[in-house]
Amino acid sequence: MVGTHTVVRSRRKASTVAVFGAATALLALAGCAGEASSANGAYGFPEAKQEASSTITVWVDADRQAAAKAFQTENPDTKIKVVTYDGSANGSNSFRTKMQLFDRAGSGWPDVVFSSQNNDAAWASQKSGGKQAFAAMLDKGLVPKGMLSNFTPGSLNPCTVDGRVYCLRNDLAQAVLWYDKSLLEQFGYALPTTWEEYQALGEKVAKEHPGYIIGTAGDAWTPEVFMWASKCQANDVPGPKSLTVKTDSTECKRAASMLDALRQNGTVPVVSVFTPEFLKKYSGKVLMMPGPAWYAGAIFNNPQSLNMSAGRLGVAAPLPWKGESEAVTGNVGGGTWFISSHSKNLKAAEKFVQFVTTADEYQVNVAPGYPAYAPAAQKWIAKQEASKYYATSLQPVETAASRVWDGWGYPTFSQEAIWAKTMTPGITGGKSIVDLLPTWQKAIENQAEVNGYRVK
């Protein structure tokens, strides 16, 4: 069960095989006539003069080449040119940088772009330097309403700005509780049903089975797994240019305090799951691990990682905190597809994006991650269960998909980068996460202000 985040953010090598035109050549075009457009397009944005038979240019990362190939197989009469780039992997921001160059040149925009990031709609939906926003508005007729309504509830939140949809999610990366069913039964432990029980189990494991772990806190997405699931309001985006940051809340402190306790007793070590150290110390000793859906394929069912044998890996729905009626969860990745507002063949561009996000030929038969499109997701779950690898039903993965808390938003900057730069060194050095919360608050505020946000 490997999602977009697996292949893009796992700190493995990203393939960048495309060669773009030199920036100088683009800039030389600046001042030339841009595309002819209609000031009041039918879809809510100025449209270029349409050329129904024109070739569309599609940008994908290396792993989405399969999506483009599947489309070409099923739609041989639609002409497309596929260009591979890094997908803005690991926060490279290449998508935005390239579009800014095309804005200055007045031409060159691709018709469709895949991004591995969830925060691109924040900038792509807005004008830049007086130039037309790159992203086409999708929910004013360009994409059928019936199709939009079939996406998993909440999955289009990263694509929605001021109530309008500007992209479609490829896959989701909802956090769940993965666990080794065989080990749990061997040790005689019950599966925790709350975060409080999870912490108590960690304390028990530390005493009775030292060396075994119930999670990790050494990756940049640690806050997305633990703080987000605790409703920590560190990243609330109520408007396009406003951000609410309250890391001193009870919700933030309870998650931080839990991590401090489990880190101290060794059951939630500060180590990245994609390091040789993790494999050397914890292979065969992972009792459980909260993490995204793609952990199954990236870590557990992976010969290059934990390589857990079939019939052992179980999954449970996100945990609630005591006294809360329903659990929420975080999200670690999942890609997005954009249609360019500059496209001269919107019909073909929409046809492509609709196919790669909804069609069984790609999302069910080929895609490694959990589809954002609900009908495809149900079939994808059935296919995974048919493999007989899992020790339990995968229903909790589906349940978690619609429980991603909407109080954690998608600004133009990366929360992971802030955590990695500000928090990880302190945590690794032995400092308390609770004590570091004010430092995190200040770092988020500073980054937000640099990016033009009003901070509350």
UniProtKB/TrEMBL annotation:
Superkingdom in the source lineage: Bacteria
One Pfam family hit: SBP_bac_1
PANTHER family referenced in this protein's UniProt entry, alphabetically: ABC TRANSPORTER SUBSTRATE-BINDING PROTEIN, ARABINOSE-BINDING PROTEIN-RELATED
Residues making up the signal peptide according to the UniProt record: 1-30
The organism of origin for this protein: Streptomyces kaempferi
Presence of keyword rRNA-binding: no
Gene3D superfamilies cross-referenced by the UniProt entry: Periplasmic binding protein-like II (3.40.190.10)
Protein name (database record): ABC transporter substrate-binding protein
Keywords associated with the record: Signal
